[in-house]
Design goal:
Elements: H1 2-29, H2 46-53, E1 59-63, H3 72-91, E2 96-100, H4 109-122, E3 127-133, E4 136-142, E5 145-150, E6 153-158, H5 167-190, E7 197-202, H6 213-221, E8 225-230, E9 243-247, H7 255-266, E10 270-274, E11 278-279, E12 290-295, H8 301-307, E13 309-311, E14 314-318, E15 321-330, E16 333-347, E17 362-363, E18 370-372, E19 378-385, E20 390-394, E21 397-400, E22 419-429, H9 438-446, E23 454-463, E24 484-485, E25 490-491, H10 494-506, H11 526-531, H12 533-563
Parallel strand pairs: 1-2, 7-8, 7-9, 9-10, 10-23
Antiparallel strand pairs: 1-5, 3-4, 5-6, 11-12, 12-21, 13-18, 14-20, 15-16, 16-17, 19-22, 22-23, 24-25
Helix pairs in contact: 3-5
């Protein structure tokens, strides 16, 4: 009997070992994982998988989200980043590699500071974290970002999202949700043989290089090819332009210029419109205590109307607004004091479109309202809008700087969700479909193209503020980060919104779908843990003992019945 029992045990052990060996051998040739998370956190989107499977060159990801004594939230983000990059590596057949680098490991202080400055120049934003230790709390400077490298090119990405509107927990959730998109989008751009071309229109008094420095730098860091174009000198339709940016034109467009833009759109060209329909500038108050906001005629209302949106000549006033400094006498000494400025609305998103999903508020200046029109062939999506406490002021309108000191009447601010940025998608109809003249025909012949009355599926974005892309300057002329307000020291999401807009317009791989991912971290409730600590300790200790006792009882009963015969 004992011999039989021994043989049975050996057979069982051998079988178990054989199964383990076979499973390990199969795992070498066939990889698979099971994602049991509710939101499929570790399952890549189809577009991302397709991108990774198409890689021919090695891509390396260097992550700076590491170091000692990091807060719990950063450690979670670190682990999530590692898990996701492992999926990238597995789906790319090992062509995507990654490593974590702690710049604090650089012993030489000068070299460490130089390394930090280099990260800033690349576009990574440092963050001060509060770190708890045995001696108390201290601040730690970290760069929660990464640099994607391939074929001598590199693209930086910010891993940790801003905490402005969502708080620490919301920022962590958003960061994890957007991680796949940021990585995939960076890889897509860095491996392209021909980087996407973004052209800035010139000739109508548009913003120049100086106010657009930070926007241009952000685009260049993301491997976009940048240039400028003038309609009266260059051939618009023969420049392989992916996106045309019209940044705050101040002079009216003539019919030939409008016609060229129209045919660019009809032939599949994407346009990002940044329009100021009202002339008003805060700097004008340096010369006078009041200004008169007047309409600006750009002669493109009919063009945009045909595409599906109406640009109004007014000002949007919002109680949810930014602040401006006004000099006041304090103890006989003039000192600047911040006051709410209703002409500087802070716009937010009311939907989950990939462009604005998990996006922080965006700062506007002297903006106008937009109206969407009933056009069945064009889909209209409101990307950004005012708060629930806004109103529209027709122009001309006199604005007094001292008015900022007066408390506004809340009953006048009774309009909700006034559109400030609109996405148009569909088949656009040419403005010149029924007004095609011989002069326009000659213009097309000079560009060696034929007239097209209707576009295929296309898209454009209209934003009712040109200054949304303009960076402020320090007193010494050094540009501040795009979206950073030097008075309130608040960083708004202007740069992210504009980059998302351009990336959506040129996205031909549907990578933007990854922005729809929703990941929620389910952290422990510390108060609840302390409250139920004793209960769970008892359960944790007693349940295994009870299970062992039950198993032992039935095992002994089975043996008694077996050997009692």
């Amino acid at each position: 009997m004992k011999r039989h029992y021994l043989i049975s045990s050996i057979k069982a052990l051998t079988t178990g070992l054989l199964i383990v060996v076979v499973v390990n051998i199969l795992s070498v040739f066939w990889y698979h994982h099971f994602d049991l998370t509710e939101e499929k956190r570790y399952t890549l989107t189809t577009s991302t998988k397709k991108l990774l499977n198409s890689l021919d060159d090695k891509v390396d990801v260097e992550i700076y989200l590491t170091g000692k004594d990091l807060p719990a939230g950063i450690k979670i983000l670190q682990n999530e980043t590692r898990e996701l990059l492992q999926e990238f590596r597995n789906n790319s057949k090992g062509l995507v590699t990654f490593h974590f680098f702690d710049y604090n490991s650089i012993k030489n202080q000068k070299q460490r500071e130089e390394f930090q400055m280099n990260l800033v120049k690349k576009g990574l934003r440092p963050t001060n974290l509060e770190v708890k230790s045995n001696s108390g709390y201290s601040e730690k400077l970290v760069f929660p970002g990464a640099v994607i490298k391939s074929n001598g090119r590199e693209i930086p990405i910010q891993i940790l999202e801003n905490q402005f509107s969502s708080g620490a927990q919301g920022a962590l959730n958003n960061s994890i949700s957007l991680l796949e998109y940021k990585l995939a989008n960076a890889i897509d751009k860095i491996i392209r043989e021909h980087p996407p071309k973004v052209m800035f229109l010139q000739g109508q008094g548009e913003l120049g290089v100086e106010p657009l420095q930070e926007f241009l730098k952000a685009l260049a860091a993301q491997n976009f090819q940048l240039d400028k174009i003038e309609l009266d000198k260059d051939k618009l339709l023969h420049n392989n332009i992916d996106v045309l940016v019209v940044a705050k034109p101040q002079k009216p467009f003539n019919e030939k210029e409008k016609f060229l833009i129209d045919q660019y759109v009809m032939n599949g060209g994407k346009v990002l419109w940044l329009l100021d329909n009202t002339i008003a500038d805060l700097d004008s108050f340096k010369l006078a205590p009041s200004i008169v906001a007047v309409p600006r005629d750009l002669n493109i209302d009919d063009l945009l109307f045909r595409y599906g949106v109406r640009t109004d000549h007014n000002l949007v006033l919002d109680l949810y607004c930014n602040q401006i400094p006004i000099i006041e006498s304090v103890g006989g000494n003039p000192q600047p004091k911040l006051f709410p400025w209703v002409f500087y609305p802070i716009a937010v998103s009311k939907n989950n479109h990939p462009i604005v999903k998990n996006l922080d508020p965006v700062a506007f200046k002297f903006t106008s309202s937009l109206d969407t029109l009933n056009n069945q062939s064009v889909k209209k999506t409101i990307l950004l809008s005012s708060s629930n406490y806004a109103r529209v002021q027709p122009t001309p309108f006199q604005i007094f700087l001292e008015g900022a000191k007066q408390k506004p009447n809340p009953y006048l601010f009774n309009q909700k969700n006034i559109p400030l940025a609109v996405l148009l998608e569909g088949n656009f109809t040419s403005l010149y479909k029924n007004q095609y003249t011989s002069d326009l025909q000659k213009l097309l012949e000079a560009q060696q193209i034929t007239f097209k009355p209707k576009s295929n599926l296309n898209k454009m974005i209209v934003i009712s503020d040109g200054d949304i892309a303009s960076n402020d300057l320090e007193a010494n002329g050094v540009p501040l980060a795009l979206g950073y307000d030097k008075y309130t020291r608040q960083l708004y999401a202007n740069k992210d919104f504009l980059l998302n807009s351009i990336e959506y317009l040129i996205d031909d791989n549907n990578l933007i779908d990854a922005r729809n991912r929703e990941v929620k971290m389910r952290l422990l409730d510390k108060a609840k843990v302390l409250e139920q600590k004793t209960k769970w300790q008892i359960i944790t200790f007693s349940v295994p003992l009870i299970l062992i006792a039950i198993f032992g009882f039935f095992y002994n009963q089975r043996r008694k019945r077996k050997y009692a015969r």
